[in-house]
Design brief:
Number of helices: 7
CATH class: Alpha Beta
Mean pLDDT: 93
Strand order of the largest sheet: 1-2-4-3
Number of strands: 4
Order of helices and strands: HHEHHEHEHEH
Length: 172
């Protein structure tokens, strides 16, 4: 199994065809997130899948009117169920845990032939209200999923820094 080609092919998609995503496909994407590793295997997350057109429109409004949020046929809100847990290094675990889960979901969506886009620009209190997220919980990110509008998918990938600029071996 080679995963690197799918990683290299992935683009952030902001224009979707409008076609619905089949429930078994959504289930596989959520399962990919469920299988992600987490700090001490706490799995302190909740994934809220939004497919309802009216709710997607309200999510768009809560995301500062970004049209592509409402146009995605599937939005997954990645939420933490434990905002206080700190790893031994002193950092909170939920941004790391949900980042990994989101990446797993994005790769599964890519494997399914779908496009994705991570959204972190939203008014969290509004989103929490729309989704009935309990007060102490946090919505960390939204993951948009859908069939890309082939006319609007960037053919060129955003430039990546060369390996020698971002990786060191045995020292900085």
């Amino acid at each position: 199994m080679q995963l690197l080609p799918e990683i290299e092919k992935r683009r952030s998609v902001r224009t979707f065809s409008g076609s619905p995503v089949a429930k078994p496909v959504i289930d596989r994407i959520v399962e990919a997130g469920r299988q992600a590793p987490s700090a001490k295997n706490r799995q302190a997350w909740r994934f809220i899948v939004i497919t309802d057109e009216k709710l997607r429109s309200e999510m768009q409004a809560a995301s500062y009117g970004q049209e592509y949020v409402g146009n995605a046929p599937v939005i997954i809100a990645l939420c933490t169920t434990n905002v206080d847990y700190r790893m031994p290094n002193g950092q909170t675990s939920h941004p790391v845990d949900l980042g990994i889960a989101g990446a797993f979901m994005m790769l599964q969506a890519e494997h399914e032939g779908l496009g994705t886009c991570v959204v972190t620009t939203f008014r969290e209190p509004e989103v929490k209200s729309l989704l009935s997220v309990p007060h102490r919980m946090r919505v960390v990110m939204l993951l948009l999923i859908g069939e890309p509008d082939s006319a609007d998918v960037p053919s060129e990938r955003a430039e990546r820094l060369p390996t020698d600029r971002i990786a060191g071996f045995n020292h900085w």
